[in-house]
Design a protein that fits this description.
The protein is mainly alpha-helical and 108 residues long. It is built from four helices and no strands. The longest helix is centred in the middle third of the chain and has 22 residues.
Length: 108
């Protein structure tokens, strides 16, 4: 269920991308008891992104922090790859929170 609350990643992207080019996908992040509902939300988001990918040839998914650590990105990428088998997924990591909190370069 979309609460229409703007997340941090969306707010950040809005500084650089016109609102008309942003498509919100909804995940059931707080769903802890109904795994089927949570997975259905991931699948629906993946299918939405796959449709946009087929239509436009490229899409981007913004997240705060490292997309491969505690992120919805891995679920989304898996679903999109199943729906569009020839897709090339490129991950452009940001700064993992563990590195930011330590304020030192290098891996966590």
């Amino acid at each position: 269920m979309d609460t229409l609350e703007r997340g941090r990643a969306e707010a950040t992207v809005l500084h650089y991308v016109p609102a008309g080019k942003i498509v919100r996908v909804v995940f059931a992040l707080n769903e802890r008891t109904d795994r089927a509902r949570r997975e259905a939300a991931w699948d629906a988001a993946g299918e939405r992104v796959a449709g946009l990918l087929r239509k436009h040839g490229a899409v981007a998914f913004a997240t705060i922090g490292d997309p491969n650590v505690y992120s919805t990105f891995t679920y989304l990428a898996q679903t999109v790859a199943e729906a569009v088998p020839d897709v090339v997924v490129e991950t452009v990591p940001g700064s993992p929170p563990c590195r930011i909190s330590r304020r030192v370069p290098g891996p966590c």
